[in-house]
Automatic annotation (TrEMBL):
Pathway: Glycan metabolism; cellulose degradation. SMART domains: Fn3_like (SM01217). Belongs to the glycosyl hydrolase 3 family. It catalyses: Hydrolysis of terminal, non-reducing beta-D-glucosyl residues with release of beta-D-glucose. It is an enzyme of class 3 (hydrolase). GO terms for molecular function: beta-glucosidase activity. InterPro entries: Cellulose_deg_GH3, Fn3-like, GH, Glyco_hydro_3_C, Glyco_hydro_3_C_sf, Glyco_hydro_3_N, Glyco_hydro_3_N_sf, Ig-like_fold. It comes from Tetrapyrgos nigripes. Residues 1-22 form the signal peptide. This is beta-glucosidase.
Length: 755
């Protein structure tokens, strides 16, 4: 282990306190909190209320967003007749969904898309809890996440921040993250509401979505966020059906119909037109308050004038403030919540006011590593016998035998420590200048890479003197293939990146969205050149989403790992999988097809008429649902991933329980190694329902020792068996026979039944 890493871990162990144990706050009910919020509002002046709902300006602010709270303590009488003294802080809003943005001494967690790859509610929840701990530790009141934008097209720049193209998987990811984050007393913010699915033209494009598609695809994860009692929702930059999201009364109205009791905050600068339009439509807070892209800066005096001239009734303003304060009281943020102790406006992360506040614990490092290895998807492996057990007769493939592999080549720029410096430095820090391994995309959703352990370092640390290592840490040819010649093993790394559009984020010609699906820096050619000279080539892909793999059947490519964007413990988590200390179990949260046409959607890059209108004519058919409908055989399908062992499914039974259906079956580990299987449940609706052939409605993670069997039960709720009925504007369970498909991927169905 490198000296600096050892030092860091020792330091963290010494400083580490269990933050969870020291929270010491009591959560309140929503009704009690609403009462406290209303009583607080009653004590505020008009200016104080305006200060509560208006950002103070992104670059006047310590966090990416703050408000101006009343500068005094307020005494309110609770329902049990005690006096509560309340001091409202400047409320700190901070990105992003995979860890603190532009802050030192924090963890670079795995991305949302890798959390999805685990198909593990346990790990999704644990990631949320750890994020919550770190945001709390830095005094962040509102965690700007989770992102739950459906990956409508695989090139969408911010797809990696969310949980992929499937609404159900997005919903589960959102639900678990929110429960986790809020358990630390930090408010979560579900974003981006709604249909924020590409970066080009995002500040004004109109996503035109019919009612059923909207509910079943794009609303679904927000509905699950409300199930998790999310504190806030961020309205998006784009327009929905012609009206800008933040003053779209119908759209915002859905939230309260769905039971949402928190506040709606604008994306940064996403407010258009007048304060009155936005306030009457239900926008509770504008951020950052003065940030004008093509909108922004409409509250403040604009809202004060609107209240004074009666166009916004004061009751509306009171309601806005109360909705902000309600979740603040629910999560006990009035009880000893840490003060802000960093300054995010320094691009190099400096300016942290108190670096001794230790919020990053060794447990978070370990969790990041665990999610990293649990999300690594083994797509191909030669080194197996028919029962799945690694065979002793060949050393080609995975896991690598430390006894028998004596020379290793590590090839590709994606294997090395990234140099993150940008020129000019104004733009540094959001990972858009990455010239090494890709562990997260760029933009506001990026995180701190201070502690990143790249693949080459981790491999060297692990291998030690047991093999010789040759490195070629660029994508140059012939250097890469030359390094591979004559080696027992060549590990070749390649990546594809994307990120957020911003006025300064054009990376290698890509404005957020990827220009194409291909690997960057000629990574595909590098892989082929290495495979041409080494018959034990293992490919590792770090990518923000699917990349075509025309080389996957090359006989010299003995294994492929799709590692996604796994966060700072990228190297160690790969070592765990490659050398077999950990049996891979990650699954693809999207399909890897051969061409973009196989996905049935596009990114609109060019529009001569200005902000385009994008019709979501594919309706419910994204990713595997589209490919099923067109009989497209994918290269690696949704839900796919190999293990070093094999699993057998049997004994399906289906029974009703109230309005739900319970699907039970048995899984046996028939191979020679302990492992984890990810059974998936897909539902086939009655023909009359007009649903895709199969839709994901359940999954689990099942740990099984070699030879062990377990019974698994997955429950399908009434809502999960329903479709959105546009004429009646409601969820309706269709009449007829439902088919149940249980299997190891959407194409690898092992058991079928019906009810
Ligand atoms: C704009 C991004 O769309 C949003 O996700 C982020 O939270 C805000 N900027 C604040 O940085």
């Amino acid at each position: 282990m490198a000296m600096w890493l050892r030092l860091k871990i020792t330091l963290l162990l010494l400083l580490s306190t269990n933050v969870l144990e020291s929270y010491g706050f009591t959560q309140r009910s929503w009704s009690e909190s609403a009462d406290l919020a209303n009583k607080t509002v009653a004590l505020l002046t008009l200016d104080e209320k305006i200060g509560m709902v208006t950002g103070v300006g992104q670059f006047n602010s310590r966090c990416v967003g703050n408000i101006k709270p009343p500068n005094r303590s307020l005494s309110i009488t609770t329902s049990s007749n005690t006096v509560l003294n309340v001091s409202i802080p400047p409320l700190c809003f901070q990105d992003g969904p995979a860890g603190l943005r532009l802050v030192k001494n924090v963890t670079g967690f795995p991305t949302g898309i890798n959390a999805a790859s685990t198909f593990s509610r346990r790990l999704m929840r644990a990631r949320g809890e750890a994020l919550g701990e770190e945001f709390r530790g830095k005094g962040v009141n509102v965690f700007l996440g989770p992102a739950m934008d459906i990956m409508r097209n695989p090139k969408a720049g911010r797809g990696w921040e969310s949980f992929g193209p499937d609404p159900y998987l997005n919903g589960e990811g959102a639900y678990e993250t929110i429960i986790g984050v809020q358990s630390a007393g930090v408010m979560a913010c579900a974003k981006h509401y709604l249909a924020n699915n590409q970066e080009h033209w995002r500040y004004g494009l109109s996503a035109n979505v019919d009612e059923r598609t909207l509910r079943e695809m794009y609303w679904w994860p927000f509905m699950r966020s409300i199930d998790a009692n999310v504190s806030s929702v961020m309205c998006a930059y784009n327009r929905l059906n012609g009206t800008s999201s933040c003053h779209n009364e119908d759209l915002i109205g859905l939230l309260s119909e769905g039971g949402f009791q928190g506040f709606v905050v604008s994306d940064w600068g996403a407010t258009h037109d007048s304060a009155t339009d936005n306030a009457l439509a239900g926008l509770d807070m504008e951020q950052p308050g003065d940030f004008i892209l093509i909108g922004g800066g409409v509250y403040g005096n604009g809202l004060k004038n609107a209240v004074n001239d009666g166009s916004v009734p004061v009751e509306v303003l009171n309601g806005m403030v109360a909705k902000i304060l309600t979740p603040w009281f629910v999560l006990g943020q009035d009880q000893g919540f840490p003060a802000i102790n960093f300054d995010a406006q320094h691009a190099d992360g400096s300016g942290n006011l108190n670096l001794n506040v230790n919020v990053r614990t060794d447990a978070h490092t370990e969790l990041t590593r665990e999610i990293g290895r649990a999300s690594a998807v083994l797509l191909k492996n030669n080194r197996t016998t028919t029962d799945g057990t690694p065979t002793g007769t060949t050393i080609r493939g995975l896991p690598v035998s430390q006894e028998r592999i004596k020379s290793i080549a590590i090839i590709g720029r994606d294997a090395k420590l990234p140099n993150l410096d940008c020129n000019p430095p104004l733009t540094a820090g959001l990972n858009q200048c990455n010239d090494g391994t890709m562990s997260i995309g760029w933009g506001s959703g990026s995180n701190s890479l201070d502690f990143i352990v790249p693949p080459n370092t981790a491999i060297r640390d692990f291998v030690g003197n047991s093999a010789t290592i040759t490195e070629s840490l660029s994508n140059d040819r012939p250097a890469g293939p030359n390094a591979a010649i004559g080696k027992d093993l060549a590990i070749v790394f390649a990546n594809a990146m994307s990120g957020e559009l911003g006025f300064y984020f054009v990376v290698d010609g890509n404005q957020g969205d990827r220009n194409d699906l291909d690997l960057w820096f000629k990574g595909g050619s590098l892989i082929e050149a290495v495979a041409a000279v080494n018959n034990n080539t293992v490919v590792v892909i770090h990518s923000v989403g699917p990349v075509p793999m025309p080389w996957s059947n090359h006989p010299n490519i003995t294994a492929i790992i799709y590692a996604g964007a796994p966060g700072e413990q990228t190297g160690p988590s790969l070592v765990d999988v490659i050398w077999g200390a950990y049996n891979p179990r990650g699954r693809l949260p999207f399909t890897i097809a051969d061409s973009e046409d196989d996905y049935g959607t596009t990114i609109v890059y060019n529009s001569i008429t200005g902000f385009p209108t994008i019709d979501y004519t594919e309706r419910l058919l994204l990713d595997y649902r589209y490919m099923d409908s067109k009989n497209i055989a994918p290269r690696f399908e949704f839900g796919f991933g190999l293990s070093y062992t094999k699993f057998e499914y049997s004994s399906l039974s289906i029974s009703s329980s109230g309005s739900s259906q319970v699907v039970s079956f048995t899984i046996k580990n028939t191979g020679g190694l302990d492992g984890t299987e990810i059974p998936q449940l897909y539902l086939g609706f009655p023909g009359s329902a007009g649903e895709p052939e199969k839709v994901l409605r359940g999954f689990d993670e099942v740990d099984l020792k070699a030879g062990e069997s377990k019974q698994v039960s997955l429950t399908i709720s009434e809502r999960e068996m329903s479709v959105w009925d546009t004429p009646s504007h409601s969820w309706v369970r269709p009449q007829g026979t439902f088919e149940v498909f249980v299997g190891a991927s959407v194409k690898d169905i092992r058991l079928t039944g019906s009810f």
